[in-house]
Amino acid sequence: xxxxxxxxxxxxxxxxxxxxxxxxxxxxxxxxxxxxxxxxxxxxxxxxxxxxxxxxxxxxxxxxxxxxxxxxxxxxxxxxxxxxxxxxxxxxxxxxxxxxxxxxxxxxxxxxxxxxxxxxxxxxxxxxxxxxxxxxxxxxxxxxxxxxxxxxxxxxxxxxxxxxxxxxxxxxxxxxxxxxxxxxxxxxxxxxxxxxxxxxxxxxxxxxxxxx
Length: 212
Prior knowledge:
Layout: E1 5-10, H1 14-24, H2 27-32, E2 35-41, E3 50-52, E4 64-67, H3 72-84, E5 92-93, E6 98-99, E7 104-105, E8 110-111, E9 116-117, E10 122-123, E11 128-129, E12 134-135, E13 140-141, E14 146-147, E15 152-153, E16 158-159, E17 164-165, E18 170-171, E19 176-177, E20 182-183, E21 188-189, E22 192-193, E23 197-200, E24 205-209
Parallel strand pairs: 1-2, 1-4, 2-3, 5-8, 6-9, 7-10, 8-11, 9-12, 10-13, 11-14, 12-15, 13-16, 14-17, 15-18, 16-19, 17-20, 18-21, 19-22, 20-23
Antiparallel strand pairs: 23-24
């Protein structure tokens, strides 16, 4: 890629600072995208690397934007707003992540080191695939999904938009997780999670439901 690019991380909290550190350990990606600076856009934080609030951010030529807010619903709200400003969303796949043949990730998606995305997987836009997460063959992941560290989505599973999959959770083959659901840490989903529910345990059972 010719020229230089500024990476703009929207959200300077813990997840944003972590993503910045992870990008710094991915020299091949940095070189391929001509990155010369990493900055933050945030409504509350201050500091030399915070260049704007979200409302006041005006994309500069060459900016690559990643939303680094951990909560899926907040991330969706922010990326919808940013899209109206005409910004260009990048995607980040760490040098030490594995993407097999036929795997694809959408714009704005962040893939951490040691994550494995297997054959013929579709990962949507603005997702987090965290350290050592495994996404098996033929899995479909919607937009604004968080797959936490060491979680596993196994062959043929489907995960809807806005889902949060907790650390070390497992979604078994061909299971379906409905949109805007939460799978608690260490849980095992056997078959189906209805939209808007939180499940926990092995096997995972419903512990709460969102108001309709």
